[in-house]
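Action item from last week, closing it out:
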Amino acid sequence: MIPIKISNKENVLKAHWDGLSGLVLSHKTDINSWITQSGLGDILGSEPIKNLICGDFKFLQSIVLRVGVNNNLSFLKTKYETFTSRAPHLYNPEKLVTNVGITVCPYCNRSFIHSVNSRTRTCQLDHFYSKDQYPYLALSFFNLIPCCYACNHQKGSRSISVSPYQNFKPDELLKFDYKYVIEEQTQKREINIVSNLTTKMGLSLDKNFEVLGLNKLYKNHEDVVQEILKKKDIYSDDFIESLMAQFPKLIESKEEALRLVFGNYVMEDDLGKRPLAKLTRDIAIESRLLTK
């Protein structure tokens, strides 16, 4: 799990509201009636419909705690389908993902989620709170998680424990490690990836890993760990410094040199830029090829 950080959140939310307000305000009377009946007027404030669509994730949590499963605004699911089938010149899921600025699935950190166009999107939008159980959040920005097809399909309408929009740092909930095991038949020493999950501020990725099958998926990337460990024996701090000294016009910083060595981003703020960056960073730190 990689947290999603939006640098220009005010503009992104404005684009979301401007793009969807026509869809939701056509049912303004019905939505306002539901808000009143659900007792949400005190928390939704003076612009209740806009806050329902653009309120932050913590705000959505407070609504879910008060309302729970509720199917009274099921027409918003139909409006969501309209949103996903829009023409390229209109505000659509591709534009949402572009505005967020994310290029890798935050759930698994394994797959790029670039889009060719609005009709052939490799990126899906997962409803963290299922639109079947919580249709009133079907168009809410912070309930729409850009993710890969595999994670969206695997999760379906099931619940997971942590959203990428919650307040956590990548290393607080998950650190990848490795261990050597002996294959019984061949007696060959192999590497297993270990996912060390911890609980921080009441947040735990246990259910995310269970529902999305991440432990099984990451077993497919043990070769990446093997390559990092080999680089540990090849490269050193002196080697990195010599690269920078030898090619000052090509390598402008140590971070760039490390990216060339690892073939991936390894700084905490860059983990959402390339698949398996979190795994690469953690194993590089654990093997002491990289320091925090």
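Closing note: Residues 21 and 220 are 43 Å apart (CA to CA).
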